[in-house]
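Anyone up for a design puzzle?
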């Protein structure tokens, strides 16, 4: 999984949730945030000023984009066959481009590009309340453990190996995928 804009407010939650769920996380932001993203549980970090993660030849099953400054074709190229790209926010023009051109380009190549919409309300975060901490730190909050913090359908569902796939619905509506390494 690649989180573009991983050092920001929403990105830090995405990194922690994905790492907690067992996904291999590549986080992208500027050099000043690389150590911070590692501390949140990112397996790999990329400074976008030094390296373009979308042209590096890696293929991801899921890209969560919190920045959305590239062409939909660049995102499509960085996806593995069957992979998903989700943009969170951005300009109206960017969102429309992803919903139209991106969706058509994705269909033609077996990839899915779209917009991630999240319903508001604190009940959406109840499954992980108290577990928003670096993946390297054990969750010791009262009532919070990997066996109780997640809904029953998530427990014991970590991928068994590099070829295992997550089922949909594990981390919200779209944060469920295994990374594919090039």
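Challenge accepted. My sequence:
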């Amino acid at each position: 999984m690649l989180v573009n804009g991983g050092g920001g407010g929403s990105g830090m939650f995405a990194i922690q949730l994905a790492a907690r769920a067992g996904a291999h996380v590549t986080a992208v932001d500027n050099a000043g945030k690389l150590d911070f993203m590692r501390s949140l549980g990112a397996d790999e970090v990329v400074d976008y000023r030094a390296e373009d993660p979308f042209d590096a030849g890696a293929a991801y099953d899921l890209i969560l984009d919190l920045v959305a400054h590239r062409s939909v074709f660049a995102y499509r190229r960085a996806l593995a066959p069957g992979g998903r790209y989700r943009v969170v926010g951005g300009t109206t023009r960017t969102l429309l481009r992803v919903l139209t051109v991106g969706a058509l380009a994705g269909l033609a190549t077996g990839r899915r590009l779209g917009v991630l919409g999240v319903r508001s309300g604190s009940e959406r975060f109840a499954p992980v309340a108290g577990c928003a901490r670096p993946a390297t730190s054990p969750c010791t909050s009262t009532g919070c453990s990997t066996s109780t913090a997640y809904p029953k359908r998530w427990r014991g569902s970590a991928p068994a190996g590099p070829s295992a796939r997550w089922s949909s619905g594990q981390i919200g509506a779209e944060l469920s995928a295994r990374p594919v390494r090039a």
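A detail worth pointing out: The first helix runs from residue 9 to 20.
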